[in-house]
Request: fold
Amino acid sequence: MTFDYETEKQNSRQKIAEAADIKQIEAVRLEYLGRKGKLAAMYANLTTLPIEQRPEEGKKINEFRDIITQLIEEKKKDIVSKERRGSLKQLDVTIPGVAHPIGHKHILTQTIEEICSIFEQLGFAVEEGPEIETEFNNFTALNIPADHPSRDGFDTFYLKQQDPSDKNVNLLLRSHTSPAQIRIMEKHKPPLAVVVPGKVYRPDAVDASHCFMFHQIEGLLVDADVKFSDLKGLLTVFLKRLFGEKIKMRFRPHFFPFTEPSAEVDISCYICEGEGCSVCSRKGWLEIMGCGMVHPEVFKAVGYPKGKYTGLAFGLGVERMTMLKHGIRDIRLFFENDIRFLEQF
Ligand code: DAH
Reply:
């Protein structure tokens, strides 16, 4: 026997068109293309035909198979995309999404940026120096000779591996940001005005007000005729911008090897306004930074001609400033990464 392929095509088209879901189209596929399906029967029938009819008949079966395979595939894709579209319709866009927590800058970074931007508004540039320094920049060039007692508090954290380019250069983690003064003056001629924020390292045991690593900001201004009154004026403007117009300040004589004269700056306690409270240890004053006029020995170390320039310098501790500004009682909080603390600023 032979088949009526046109009728078969029509029937199969209709069945495929009527299939409403994946299950139904799969049933149609099995009916035609399955192992016991119509196509299998057609191919089996081929062997019963006279040999000369077989090529012609085989061609028709193949053609029928190709058409039906394609139609079923297309229908399947159609069903799948319709189902997808259907499920999209069920998406409720009014349901609130899952909010990802947004991070922000660490409070110490915020303080550094605030302080640097005040100085930038006053015409200072912001520079950085390396945390690994030479003994010369950290001490000797700053007028702190090897036997000077003021080395004692800082003399540590030397690096085993010395500078490979020079066997005689000792390297250490810098104990203050002041060596940046040396690097800047070695590179630039006055007039210059720079602030340098960065990490410093000291052999301090950790407690509520000490840490072996903390941050400082160094300041340096050098020109032909810089006076102590410029230093007072500059720091007055700076501290009023940072802590508010109301604060009072005083300069106490002090000693630093790299400045002469030297002073420490106190501000009136912003909590009790000078009355005395627990933040200022009942003194009414808070010690806030060191400063002075650049020592001639420092100019000599960087090769500036004798007597040509004068300069002012200052250095402050970022953690201490931040603790005073925000009433934070323990320096360790900055470094413990406790989100409950960090989130507050
Ligand atoms: N380097 C000093 C320290 O770490 C701070 C300091 C004091 C820096 C006076 C200065 C300065 O530039 O003039 O204690």
